[in-house]
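Here comes a specimen:
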Amino acid sequence: MLDDFFSRALIAGIGVALIAGPLGCFIVWRRLAYFGDTLSHAALLGVALALLMEINVTLAVFVVCVCVSMVLLVLQKRATLSADALLGLLAHSSLAVGLVALAFMTWVRVDLMGFLFGDILAVTPTDIAIIWSGGIGVLIILAMIWRPLFAATVNVELAQAEGMKPERANIIFMLLMAAVIAISMKIVGVLLITALLIIPAAAARRFATGPEQMAMLAAIVGVVAVFGGLFGSLEWDTPAGPSIVVAALGVFIVSVLPMPAILKKKQHQNTRKTQQSRGLE
């Protein structure tokens, strides 16, 4: 019989995995890993502001991540620096400002390791409600913008020509990213959120025959990583958040091993069927 705290951790981890998988696919397709890092680093600044202003941490992290996203959009249009330079500037600046702000707040006792690496075993029923309600909202919105967002990922000019408004889809995607990071911060921490977004999607990529299937497989891989990481943490007394990421890494390593010939043939047949069905649409 599992303890209540472990059951809550499983429920919360599964919720985060189901959200992170589909969003992580777009991060992989668009090569936006550094953008995820930037928002996760900015989350610590949100934590500092929440403690200073005595407001909800999840809300503060979401607001800060949204502000950093908007600042990035403005700087990309006005600054002469490249996108990766801007991301590096914002990521490390926000992280440093957050750490300095926390150091000045001597009257507040801060579990910095918990914020950096997560504390999934300490989630409460309220946290679970936030994760699942927020996650369902994120997935619904992602489904609504899936077509224009994917079209913009493949070819921005073509998406604009077809009137899909890719810029609006990109802004909504940034808001969804901010929401996911705010929701999942307590699970794996600000330093490991990007790993939970990227690794399951990267592991699913080899076995998927289409974008929708890759999104579903990424969510499944994330769930497997949550189970493996939490039970491994229980067995070997390791940190829960990093253990989840290590479990996801294990799945990824298995995914890059040479594929048996029969599976390779089956995947090729599925890919051909998918292409033929799309050609008939």
